Amino acid sequence: MNDSALKSFCTWARTELIKGVEAQMVRYGITEPAPAPVGSETVSGLPLSPAEIEQRDELLRMQAEVGHEALRDRAAYTWFNRIVAIRFMDARGWLPSRMRMLSRADGSHGSEAVENALDVEIATADTDRIAELKMAGLDEPLWRYLFVAQCEELADCLPGVFERVGGAMELLLPQGLMMSDGVVGKLNVVLTDEDWREGVTVLGWMYQYYNADVKDEFFKSKRKAAAADIAPATQLFTPEWIVRYMVENSLGRLWMLNNPGSSLRERMKYYIEPDAEHEDFIRISSPEEITLCDPACGSGHILVYAFELLFHMYEERGYREREIPELILTKNLAGMEIDSRAAQIAELALAMCAREHDRRFFRRGVRADVTVLSSIPLGEDELPGNKKLAEELSHLGEIGSLLNPTDAEIEKLKAAAADCAGDLFAAATKDKLESAVAICEKLSRRFTCTVANPPYMGSSSFNPFMSKWVKKNYPDTKSDLCTCFIERIIDFASAKGTVSLVTSDTCMYLSSFERMRNTLVDKHTLIALIDTRGSNAHPDVFDANTGWVIQSNHIPGYKGAYFKLNQKIGEKDAALKEAIQNPTCGWFYRRNADAFKQIPSTPIAYWASDAMLEAFGGHSIRDEAFAGIGMRTGDNARFLRLWHEVGLSDMVIGCCSAEEQINSGARWVPYNKGGNFRRWYGNNDYVVNWFNNGEEIKANTKAVYPELGDDLGWKISNERFYFKPGLTWTGVTSGLFNCRLYRQGFIFDSGANGLFSTKELGVSYLSALLNSSVAASAFSFLNPTLNFGAGTVNNMPVIRPSASDYSIVEDLAHRCFDASEADYNSFETSWDFGHNPLV
Questions:
Q1: Mean pLDDT throughout 241-258?
Q2: 3-class DSSP state for residue 347?
Q3: CB of 304 closer than 8 Å to CB of 200
Q4: According to the 3-state scheme, what is the secondary structure of 155-179?
Q5: pLDDT value at 541 more than 50
Q6: Are 503 and 485 in contact (CB under 8 A)?
Q7: Per the omega criterion (within 30 degrees of 0), is the bond before 801 cis?
Q8: Which class for 130: exposed (0-12), middle (13-18), buried (19 or more C-beta within 10 A)?
Q9: Where do the structural domains in the chain lie, given as residue ranges?
Q10: What distance in Å separates the CA atoms of residue 835 and residue 839, rounded to the nearest whole number?
Q11: Is residue 521 within 8 Å of residue 465, measured between CB atoms?
């Protein structure tokens, strides 16, 4: 399968289908405004049959309800889903008619059903009408008739996938789909029978690619996410190896712990052997006792692989092949999704998995448990006394399975629905309340395994409702939807249940997620983790992902398995398999998560050595020095200059205090503002207008921020350290941390920070520590981002040396400083430049 060709086709097909549907809407007068009223027998000279009049009236009603574009787009994706589903069954020979609808018997473009129309057996088709069209040689109308009839028949077999289309939507079936340059014609070029037979994952990829342009448009717009934006903007089809890692180490793990001798182990290439000494798990005697949910199932990739593993579990226990699919779909698997289109694909994929093992599956009336979490608009008067829940249900299509209803709330819904019984005028409210009860009961279930690739959306994209709701309900994980799901997915787990999900990696170390990490370590158990930053694990995420496997209860002493795949080790999936087979590979670690609590903010620093962890139990920079931000001038263009832009007579270097600077009468003093990577000395580029102790800057700050009064510390921070010798560093850097010593006479910026010794250890010793490889290692888990704030530096552990060691380190630091200063001053950009060393 050519992925790029498939993506190009799907994005093209979306545009083409929308144009085709729009043409049908114009043809039948389903526009805004409509050229003819409801009930019209002709539209712009086109006579309508009684059936077409009824269909048009229904479409006009739908247009008034959801809007023209929404109706058009719904029709387009409806036909896309139907075409894809039928072509998949074409290739497998699974259509009830036993005739290929979208291809010939040899897989080439054409329609076997049209060519052999008189032999087609479709229960909902009129054989006389088929014969009439065939004898007249009207291939296009014949194909349209057969295609719609086949969809109608499949609606009986797969009602969750094939909604009844013989009604209104039939009018909006585009023309020319079977032409060689039409949607079906090009589909048959992009995907051959062999591609379709590789498995159902092609359905998921096609769904994601179909929405690719919509997703790109949303992120380019930088607007807040409306309800309609969330699904296409957050859909990601999970790579196969990550799916297998998550499912094998949750569902597969549960089976192996209960059945250590199972042959399933040979099928699971990403399965991690347990910590046998500390395991504590759910005991099961039959595969029928297992439940697995994907609460953000998308097009069902995770559920499909779970189906495969469950099938082998049943098979191992001696169940008959044809009875297994129904058991899996009715007892084991559940999915939830806010996007009805994705849910249809998920249900289709599971139905195809079932049909693979049961040729009579389409006749059994069995449906996969895939729930669409659509908004249920409830007014406060329809749910008296529970405004909060009414509002949440009205926005269910946005918050989805993050909603965690309580038993008390479900009982209130049931009571409200019961109060509507017998009231004819409250029938619509009763229906909504009963739907809400059914949805909330599904959301309140607990599962032995929960697995998800949740939606990724940062809080900056939240609309006002989402922003307020997430902050209130998920205060510890509110920065992104995917991190909210870490908290929610654990709530889906039964006692000792296992959850697995893939999220952004920032929650491993950012201070804003500290409470979340403490909860994970204290109340739950980290079973396994893959760290894939920079691995392109997701094609649509900034290469920063973490795959978690968590057990809902806390197991003291448990040593989880951690895989550092964020380095140059080749293909990440191959590296993971290698580490599982060879734990001494260099990127596999075993660690008790309790050890993370030794480090400030509890980062998931699984690769920290025992010696490093022990060091964090002692002194830190904050015990020896002060580190903090400096000044924000409020107007750099006005108050800052490069040193060579001012007269040397109006600039003073080396003042030891504000009083000395005032007495000098100079306007400009040296200003540390970060700069490029440089250690020990340098980047002395700027000067700041600090005339008369910063008179102008302070006056401007008071004018802009009158609420500060005389306390300007929020903008002109840590003024007591101005002019003192210390350390500075570049606050934002894509490289290693780098700090520089500077002599007295400087003021420092908020983007550069400053560090000043307050105890026995001098800044030279501390600079040697902070510029060392040891510090680089510690920084890699204290804060492996682009930002090195004072808080991060304050947490750096410090070993208080003996007098002799201190002297050695101080001497080395001074030598490094002298060498760096000499190098810096050899260039004319330094104010201490004397002469070029080559001259």
A1: 95
A2: helix
A3: yes
A4: HHHCCCCCCCCCCHHHHHCCCCCCC
A5: no
A6: yes
A7: no
A8: buried
A9: 3-198, 232-375+389-404+444-607, 623-824
A10: 7
A11: no
Q: What is the CATH number of domain 232-375+389-404+444-607?
A: 3.40.50.150
**Is the domain 623-824 a CATH 3.40.50 member?**
no
Q: Token pair of 347, please?
A: 């249900």
Can you tell me which residue has the tokens 């040193």?
A: 643
CA 464, CA 443: separation in Å to the nearest integer? Answer: 24
User: Which of 469, 406, 480 lies closest to 443, judged by CA?
Assistant: 406
Q: Which residues pair with 627 in a beta bridge?
A: 755
Beta bridge partners of 333: 292
Q: What pTM does this model have?
A: 0.86
Q: How many CA atoms lie within 13 A of 37 on its CB side?
A: 0
Please write the tens of the pLDDT for every residue from 220-240.
877 777 777 777 677 777 888
Q: With contact defined as beta carbons under 8 Å apart, do 307 and 353 qualify?
A: yes
Going by pLDDT thresholds of 50, 70 and 90, the confidence category of residue 41 is: very high
* Nearest partner of 815 among 777, 764, 748, 759, judged by Cα: 764
Q: Which of the four pLDDT bands, split at 50, 70 and 90, describes residue 535?
A: very low
Does residue 471 contact residue 207 with C-beta atoms inside 8 Å? no
User: Hunting for tokens 């001053």 — which residue is that?
Assistant: 825
Secondary structure percentages of the chain, helix, strand, coil, to 5? 50, 10, 40
DSSP 331: I
Return the closest-CA partner of residue 465 out of 221, 227, 215: 227
Query: What pLDDT, on the 0 to 100 scale, is given for residue 668?
Result: 92
pLDDT in tens, 644-666: 898 888 999 989 888 998 998 89
Buried b (16+ CB within 10 A) or exposed e, 213-238: ebbeebeeeeeebebbbbbbbbbbbb
Residue 418: other Cβ atoms inside 10 A: 12
